[in-house]
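pls design
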């Protein structure tokens, strides 16, 4: 129990929900996370996440010191300050640079492997994460609290319920059924290629250590992002946080192929029915006429880590009603990954909500007041994140067809 006996139920053990649980536990607030996956190994989520200055600060704020150190030690090894854009024959187009107030700080965390991040966020939370609990609905209780019901027939009572159940949030579906994120019309193949395979297949040297973007003449666009670890992640965890098993992973590239629905050459349903090998074949065919150094990318992609998604966005971002049900992350502000800020915004929510709910637990603030202030700030920075992501999505795919 927290100091005031406040009990927080978090629906969804993704990036945002787990970060919040770390923050609240660190502050001594009673928190339980309900996750529909059967366990931490049920899904591979091993793609690369760009981490912004705000995202890094929020992760640091929520994690205890040993996990902060582990975050730094398992982050991307090279600093990133821009991208190089090419046409499909690798003729350079332009090379915008990004401002990063962190400069070349040696302990900067500017990209993480999502599987590694998830394991770090789960460390120490074993007693409070309940797996195999699919949220179905919630109800307000006469005492001001809330009851969450799960598909297995169980339920839990809390003073606050945090909807951290992602872009297809069931909590949002119950409370705000019309607030679905809009489909932007862009279909994306996300994939992963082992670095050594890509280099062996002839990935040109200038693309090996940079964020590269290739603009195809047929409307396909390829983003290629290196993920290079400082040391072996398993050994690093063994040294800094004995007992924590991190996934075995070597250096890789995350490849992102964007195609507008109208240019897919197949109906949407057919695209989404493609499995990993099918998606790799689709992407290899789309890039078959490109520079020889790029053709190997999807031929060597790992099918089990290849998946297709529809880019979606909540626009505008609107606050939920101020009550015991509080939104966090993609549930309230889905945005396309083009801006690389969705997870950063979710952990920013987690840090802000940790502060707000800790103050409530300590009796320093009323719940309604704390939740209103949290949502006001969240809507402001999340709107910036959505707008920035949409600008980049529109820049890369001119036909992006929603969001105003
Ligand atoms: C390929 C890809 C690349 C990306 N790259 C970046 C990047 O570089 N930088 C960045 O900032 N963002 C990136 N994003 C976006 C980022 O992944 C999301 O914004 C982020 O994961 C949102 O966190 P969340 O906690 O809100 O939701 P999620 O991480 O999606 O977590 C939701 C959790 O809720 C669980 N859940 C769902 N329904 C239920 C239910 N009914 N009951 C119980 N549990 C449930 C799910 O199993 C899941 O664990 C990327 C996204 C993709 C797909």
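designed seq:
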């Amino acid at each position: 129990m927290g100091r005031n006996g406040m009990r927080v139920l978090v629906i969804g053990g993704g990036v945002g929900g787990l970060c919040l649980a770390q923050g609240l536990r660190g502050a001594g607030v009673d928190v339980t996370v309900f996750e529909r996956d059967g366990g931490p190994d049920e899904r591979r989520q091993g793609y690369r996440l760009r981490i912004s200055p705000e995202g890094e600060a929020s992760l640091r704020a929520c994690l205890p010191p040993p996990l902060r150190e582990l975050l730094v030690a398992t982050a991307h090894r090279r600093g990133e300050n821009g991208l190089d854009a090419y046409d499909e024959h690798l003729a350079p187009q332009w090379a915008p640079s990004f401002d990063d107030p962190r400069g070349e700080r040696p302990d900067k965390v500017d990209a993480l492997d999502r599987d590694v991040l998830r394991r770090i966020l789960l460390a120490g939370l074993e007693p409070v994460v309940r797996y195999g609990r699919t949220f179905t609905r919630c109800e307000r209780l006469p005492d001001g609290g809330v009851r969450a019901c799960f598909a297995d027939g169980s339920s839990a009572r809390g003073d606050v319920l945090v909807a951290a159940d992602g872009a297809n949030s069931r909590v949002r579906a119950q409370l705000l059924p019309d607030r679905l994120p809009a489909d932007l019309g862009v279909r994306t193949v996300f994939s992963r290629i082992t670095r050594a395979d890509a280099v062996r297949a002839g990935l040109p040297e200038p693309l090996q250590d940079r964020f590269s973007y290739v603009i195809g003449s047929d409307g396909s666009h390829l983003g290629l992002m290196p993920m290079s670890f400082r040391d072996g992640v398993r050994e690093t965890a063994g040294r800094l946080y004995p007992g924590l098993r991190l996934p075995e992973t070597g250096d890789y590239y995350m490849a992102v192929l964007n195609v507008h629905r109208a240019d897919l050459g197949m109906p949407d349903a057919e695209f989404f029915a493609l499995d990993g090998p099918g998606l790799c074949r689709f992407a290899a065919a789309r890039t078959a006429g490109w520079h020889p150094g790029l053709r190997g990318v999807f031929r060597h992609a790992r099918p089990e880590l290849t998946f297709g998604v529809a880019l979606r966005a909540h626009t505008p971002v609107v606050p939920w009603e101020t009550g015991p049900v509080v939104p966090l992350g993609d549930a309230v502000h889905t945005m396309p990954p083009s801006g690389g800020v969705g997870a950063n915004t979710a952990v920013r929510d987690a840090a802000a909500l940790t502060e707000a709910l800790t103050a409530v637990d300590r009796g320093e603030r009323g719940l309604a007041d704390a939740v209103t202030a949290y949502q006001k700030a969240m809507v402001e920075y999340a709107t910036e994140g959505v707008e920035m992501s949409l600008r980049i999505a529109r820049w890369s795919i001119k036909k992006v067809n929603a969001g105003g």
